[in-house]
Amino acid sequence: CGMNTNYGKIDPYWMAASGIDEAIRNNVAVGGRRIALLDNFTWGNPEKPDRLGSLVRACQACYDYAKGFQTPFISGKDSLYNESPMGPVTPTLLITAIGVNPDIRKTVSIELKQPENLVYLVGETYAELGGSHYYQLKGYLGKTVPRVRLPQAKKTMDLMTGAIDSGYVRSCHDLSEGGLAVAAAEMAFSSGYGLELDLRKVPRADEMSRNDYVLFSESNSRFLVEVTEKRRENFEALMKDTACAEVGMVKKDGILSVKGLNGKQAVHADLEELRRRWKSTLGG
Fold first, then answer.
1. CA distance 21 to 147
2. Are residues 50 and 153 in the same domain?
3. Among 108, 238, 249, 277, which lies 20 to 30 A Cα-Cα from 184?
4. Same domain, yes or no, for 138 and 205?
5. What pLDDT is recorded for position 246?
6. Are 37 and 96 in contact (CB under 8 A)?
7. What is the per-residue pLDDT for 207?
8. Which residues face 139 on adjacent strands?
9. Are 152 and 227 found together in one domain?
10. In this structure, what are the phi and psi dihedrals at residue 7, rounded to the nearest 5 degrees?
11. Given its phi and psi angles, is residue 110 left (phi above 0), alpha (psi -120 to 50 degrees) or beta?
């Protein structure tokens, strides 16, 4: 599934596009293909111009990106006129994607598999933190909502499917809420193995000069991928036409360690503590 209501506060078009990209890459990350989509709209009164305008923009994105990714909408549900004396609900679109995995034995999971395996970041990172969880924690909304660069996004998805089918991928996690930092933490504490990352190696736009931006950007069409040393050359050859770089390594210790853009340690976190916080309640 893909959904981020904060994006809709900035631009409903890119909220819809991002939801589609996220739902598709959730499928692709485990080996899915032949993907179809469902939409669930929750909106205000469409008889009011601003509500109708935002709804039209979201629908236009659904059309553009369903066509571009070749993922048809096959069903959905709309809930309109959601208003109170305090105003309309935040424009919200949930995208659900369903696909086919032709061989369940090749299904890829997110937990790291073996120390000394290499970790790659596939896809480019931009300074796109508008509507992000990181900004929300800091009390900001922002305006640089993540976009979907369709030709490259489609190519990246197709290449990831090829890598999984070829047996090059040991584990994989798409990057969504919380960006690289959260995806890396989830892969690490799901396995108990540590993970060492170097932000200097992350494929990124030129303006990305802050550690927190690289760690928490929510740019679309990205995957964190574990590959064995034996498969390094095959994987890199396959990915030569998309943004892809080796950014780290699986470690035996239970630590998430990140070197910053200046080469100094930016993060040193115990996996048990990360897991405890991830599983705790909102007030924990």
1. 10
2. no
3. 238
4. yes
5. 98
6. yes
7. 83
8. none
9. yes
10. -60, -35
11. alpha
3 state SS of 10: helix
C-alpha distance across the termini of the chain, in Å: 26
In this structure, the answer to whether residues 159 and 218 fall within a common structural domain is yes
Same domain, 49 and 171: no
Q: What global pTM score does this model have? A: 0.95
- The answer to whether the Cα torsion of 148, 150, 152, 153 is positive or negative is positive
Query: Do residue 166 and residue 83 come from a single domain?
Result: no
- Looking at residue 206, its pLDDT comes to 85
At 82 the pLDDT is 96
Contacts by 74-79, CB closer than 8 A, 24 or more apart: 74/36, 74/37, 74/38, 75/38, 76/38, 76/39, 76/40, 76/41, 77/39, 77/40, 77/41, 78/39, 78/40, 78/41, 78/43, 79/40, 79/41, 79/42, 79/43
Q: Where are the alpha helices (DSSP H) in the chain?
A: 5-10, 12-30, 49-69, 133-138, 150-165, 179-191, 211-216, 232-238, 271-279
Cα separation, 24 vs 5, in Å, equals 18
pLDDT at 106: 87
In a domain? residue 284: no
| Residue where one domain finishes, among candidates 54, 85, 102 | 102
| Last residue within a domain, chosen from 102, 118, 145 | 102
List per-block mean pLDDT (blocks of 10 residues) for the chain, which spans 284 residues.
Answer: 93 97 97 96 96 97 97 96 93 96 92 97 97 95 96 97 96 97 96 96 92 97 98 97 97 95 95 89 63
